[in-house]
Amino acid sequence: MKIAGIVTEYNPFHQGHIHHITLTRRITDCDVLIAVMSGNFVQRGEPAVIDKWQRTEAALTHGVDLVIELPFAYAVQSAKQFAEASIGILALAGVTDIVFGSETNNLEELKEFAAMPINVNAFKEKMKSGAGYPAAYGLSTASYFPNDILGIAYLKAMEGTDIIPHTIQRTNSYHDTAMDSEFASASSLRHAHFNQLPLNGQTPLESALATYPTIDWQAYYPALRLKLLTTDKETLSRLFLFDEGIENHLVKQAMNSDTWEIFLNRAVTRRYTKARIQRSCTHALVHTRKEEINGLSNYPYLRVLGFNQIGREYLKHLQTNEVKVASRFNQIPEAIRKLEFRSTLVYASALPPELRNQLIKREIQGPIIIEKKD
Questions:
Q1: Which of 62, 99, 151, 242 has the most crowded CB, counting CB atoms within 10 A?
Q2: Cα angle at 14 between 362 and 77, to 5 degrees?
Q3: In angstroms, how far is the first alpha carbon of the chain from the final one?
Q4: What domains can you pick out in the chain, each with its CATH number?
């Protein structure tokens, strides 16, 4: 049986993602397509523009058979940890092939990078003396390609497995905000959404986004600022990603910044990237403690967000083979469940009361089920 896997965030789900799904099925000729997807907060430490349940439904409606959650504890991390968790979950789900987007679309050269004893997370930082990595793709300079970096991280995480990797050509720029390409990027769609610009039919979630509250970091900044300024430094230092005295830096910037934009501009330095600041601040809001992350075991289960009929049958196959499947919230291991619920409470806090309560209740209900069409 051919089982294809893809790593996704769908922030938001768009036409380029449909293209990815179509090509994945064509390349692998798979019997089942599984997506592992970040929840309500994504890898760069940002709140998703729309909740994970609506993103799950869009994926299932457009060709994915089974959506598995990448838990908050693993999703809001650097590339290496994000990739290791994503691939670990897909491996547990029994995937035979993984397909990911790449700017260079040169799998053999990406494999060469992956075979090097390198820290993938360091690609985005200033390279230290003696690194000497090839700059062929700009990976060791400020012109790095985000999907290639993640691709290298995926390949490193696949080492020791029988999973076959495949790449497809990324057709737009990761940070592009223009809407004039065949497949607009998620960045351009978020930019249009935040600025109330037309989405030009680039996402099946267009109507849903039109009525969904605008969720960005500014909505959470008052709570973040209050926490940073009223929590003692010792407590802050015990939070996940609060290392090397970053708490002193963040408190100082919060004291002098009235808005998130000002805070972020001041907090980002040569030492701390934008993504690092956002991830640290996300974990501060959720009050993720280092001991909680350090105490987690490696992906002992699959948290199912949604499935269709094919996905349902495949879940039965996994359970027959003694893979732990959590289709109900109380089946999630307690340590991860607590973090997941706290992250949902934080995400929902920026929503109007009725929608906030709906989302909190939705977290403890069952998965999205797409029934077979007549």
A1: 151
A2: 65
A3: 25
A4: 3-173+188-212+298-369 (3.40.50.620), 217-294 (no CATH)
